[in-house]
Amino acid sequence: MSMNTISKDSHYKLTSGTQIPLIGFGVYLVPPLLTANLVYQALKAGYRLIDTAQIYRNESEVGEGVLRWISENPESNKREDIFIITKIWDSFHGYESAKQSIKASIKKICVPGIDYIDLFLIHSPNSNKQKRLETYQALQESKDSNYVHSIGVSNYGINHLEELYNWKDLKYPPVSNQIEIHPWLMRSQLVDYCSRRQIICQAYSPLAKGRKFNDLTLNSIAKKYEKNNAQILIRWSVQKGFVVLPKTLQIDRLKSNFNIWDFELSNEDILSLEHEESYFITGWDPTLYNG
């Protein structure tokens, strides 16, 4: 995608044929009591992708926020303009457990007016080969049901992805892999692998949880473009070709995080931000899991 044509309305096309927005609002650690309003405010601010998960315990509230936005102006606010992601948690791996957890998520999210989940992911590979493949089989069946439009994975390393591609029952290859990515955790080998397989990488914790906001290069670039540090890092992810998933509990930051469309980082500035050899993980890293 050319940076000259990129805008808030830009999308990537998944191998499933559906379109995914470039920026999403993540609701990890967002309390259920705050979720519906923050989702609504995110949609008001221009976001069209909402990322939740079973373990976040706010799937129902995501649905409430989406419905509030739709009902505010049904003629222009359409369900088909929104992209909803959720994920199967590790303790539900295995065919029967996964099927039941998928049904539970569908029941929470797919209330009248929403009707389907755009993308369902396996949250991490933290079980074993048999359970992972059984879980993916349950996801494939959910896609056949039309309640789920696309399926994929999260926190998968190359070995986990190869496991899927070597599986004789693979019917729908993963369209996306959601992983922690930022300039201090670039995962170039994994990103390159995903690119070759036409798997879109989604970047969570794209701000490195603010732990690099004192970086001199980042501060200098932010000053140059008259933007804040978060906007620079989000723009970096977009220009690298990732779907980026910033999160915040603050409505003003929610709005500013989305406003990254009126500038473009130079190639020189992109390179100066990057730390190819760095391994600055801010949470867990199941991509390294060997079980």
From TrEMBL:
Keywords: Membrane, Oxidoreductase, Transmembrane, Transmembrane helix
UniProt-annotated site: Lowers pKa of active site Tyr, residues: K87
PROSITE patterns: ALDOKETO_REDUCTASE_1, ALDOKETO_REDUCTASE_3
Record-level Gene Ontology MF annotations: oxidoreductase activity, acting on the CH-OH group of donors, NAD or NADP as acceptor
InterPro entries: AKR, Aldo/ket_reductase_CS, NAD(P)_OxRdtase_dom_sf, NADP_OxRdtase_dom
Catalytic site: Y56
Keyword Glycoprotein: no
Record field: transmembrane: 20-40
Cited PANTHER family: 2,5-DIKETO-D-GLUCONIC ACID REDUCTASE (PTHR43827), ALDO_KETO REDUCTASE FAMILY PROTEIN (PTHR43827:SF13)
Protein name: NADP-dependent oxidoreductase domain-containing protein
Source species of the chain: Saccharomycopsis crataegensis
